[in-house]
């Protein structure tokens, strides 16, 4: 009956790709609709999806989401969908043209950051990303650790004053 929800996700969020922000510098984000079939929607409303290996490509002026895993709907029949099929993303023409130019120019890719429900429709937060080098990842981890230590020390000092 009661569903277990990840505490770090927003209320309408179905899935997030937390590894993407670790592996890539996110330069810009876009909100895109996604073309789905009925059993996919039902499976997503149950909160089942995985963005772990997902990425987006631009083919013939259309944006496609690949490797998004939406498991088959448990109550479905022979009409069930293929779990890893390619799904079309819905963006405005000028956004697609802009993204195509940015991806073509350099070392950039399109990575889905999250999948969520908005006004009853499934949306994908798509990030224009540039790959991080190993030393960049180490720097980010070091910075995060230092910030955590500062917050911890400030908490100790405040508790020492109040005691």
Automatic annotation (TrEMBL):
- Tell me the compartments it is located in: Cytoplasm
Top-level taxonomic group: Bacteria
What InterPro entries does the annotation carry? SmpB, SsrA-bd_prot, SsrA-bd_prot_CS
One of the entry's Gene Ontology molecular-function terms is: RNA binding
User: Which PANTHER family does the protein's record reference?
Assistant: SSRA-BINDING PROTEIN, TMRNA-BINDING COMPONENT OF TRANS-TRANSLATION TAGGING COMPLEX
* Summary of the function given for this chain in its UniProt record: Required for rescue of stalled ribosomes mediated by trans-translation. Binds to transfer-messenger RNA (tmRNA), required for stable association of tmRNA with ribosomes. tmRNA and SmpB together mimic tRNA shape, replacing the anticodon stem-loop with SmpB. tmRNA is encoded by the ssrA gene; the 2 termini fold to resemble tRNA(Ala) and it encodes a 'tag peptide', a short internal open reading frame. During trans-translation Ala-aminoacylated tmRNA acts like a tRNA, entering the A-site of stalled ribosomes, displacing the stalled mRNA.
Protein name, per record: SsrA-binding protein
Q: Which organism is it from?
A: Corynebacterium yudongzhengii
The gene behind this protein is smpB
